[in-house]
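Narrative of accomplishments. A recurring question from our advisory board has been how the design workflow behaves on a single, concrete structure rather than in aggregate. To address it, we present the structure tokens for one chain from the evaluation set, followed by the sequence designed for it. No filtering or post-editing was applied between the two.
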């Protein structure tokens, strides 16, 4: 299932962030699918869109927990990355990695490059 590790389901209500993150992640070899909310993400997960779940810091804590739980339950070998607005912000309990937001997305790219190399 190595191909799944490069698939990123990015959930973000912010199109501009989704676009800039998507470009950075595509540059390191990821296939990025963006949805803007919980319902669309749950649909994608139910259809087997698995691999890496990327949760934007602009989602509520409740939505982030719900999506992380669903992804963890329904996907083989899930890897969940939560982006935090600030150090110490809420991170879903099922997240495998957390990244503090940076406009250049370098910390996010580093975490996913490490995951892809594993």
């Amino acid at each position: 299932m190595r191909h799944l590790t490069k698939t990123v389901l990015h959930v973000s209500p912010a199109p501009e962030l989704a676009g800039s993150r998507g470009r950075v992640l595509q540059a390191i070899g990821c296939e990025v699918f963006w949805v803007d909310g919980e319902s669309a993400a749950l649909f994608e997960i139910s259809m087997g869109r698995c691999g890496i779940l990327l949760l934007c810091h602009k989602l509520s804590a409740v939505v982030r927990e719900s999506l992380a739980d669903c992804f963890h339950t329904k996907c083989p070998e899930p890897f969940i990355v939560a982006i935090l607005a600030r150090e110490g912000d809420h991170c879903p309990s099922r997240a495998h990695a957390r990244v503090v937001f940076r406009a250049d997305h370098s910390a996010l790219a580093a975490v996913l490059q490490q995951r892809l190399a594993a």
